[in-house]
Amino acid sequence: MPNNARVFIIDDDAAVRDSLAFLLSTSGFAVTAFETAEHFLEALPRLGFGCVVTDIRMPEIDGIELLKRLKATAADLPVIVMTGHGDVPLAVEAMKLGALDFMEKPFEDERLINVLQAAFEQSSKATKVAADASELAARLASLSPRERQVMNGLVAGLSNKAIAKEYDISPRTVEVYRANVMMKMHAGSISELVRQAIRSGALID
């Protein structure tokens, strides 16, 4: 279980809160329970990342309204809604609002644990993808305008001589810029440079 595997339980039924908190804490999750969605939203700015497990039917702010408010605040938290028998239409609405999954009561403990583990794994992958994209953007930003031009020529398949002619510089100068581009982009080959250019959308300046 990742170190940030925090779970926020929201349910107005104390017995349900206690039962879920015990189950998940003994399964390796760090659990914080809330009696109402209002209390959760008040604490949200201090909570950090975690997965929300919320009942869909609650007084005042219910699960649907909670999803709407989380969406409005751009809180990127995976949400699993718990529904009672016959609440499938509400569950569908919740999914449309961004809920990751729904659990129809009564549900097996193992299924909830599996869904939570999948949510954290998915979040971890998304975080890595975002970090990789940010690092690639930083590498591109480190290129000078001339280095960027030479990179464009390289990924277009042009030879050093053709790039030199295109930008009215000497082939030797192109070689220097080419070495700089490969170093700054951390590319060991032209094919790797092309892959980076495709990923970043930088094929054309």
From TrEMBL:
Stretches assigned to the HTH luxR-type domain: 136-201
Domain Response regulatory: 6-120
SUPFAM superfamilies referenced in this protein's UniProt entry, alphabetically: C-terminal effector domain of the bipartite response regulators, CheY-like
Modified residues (4-aspartylphosphate): 55
Lyase recorded as keyword: no
Keywords: DNA-binding, Phosphoprotein, Transcription, Transcription regulation
Name of the protein: Response regulator FixJ
NCBIfam families linked to this entry: PRK09390.1 (NF006900)
Pfam hit, one: Response_reg
Organism: Labrys neptuniae
Keyword Transcription applies: yes
CDD domains: LuxR_C_like (cd06170), REC_FixJ (cd17537)
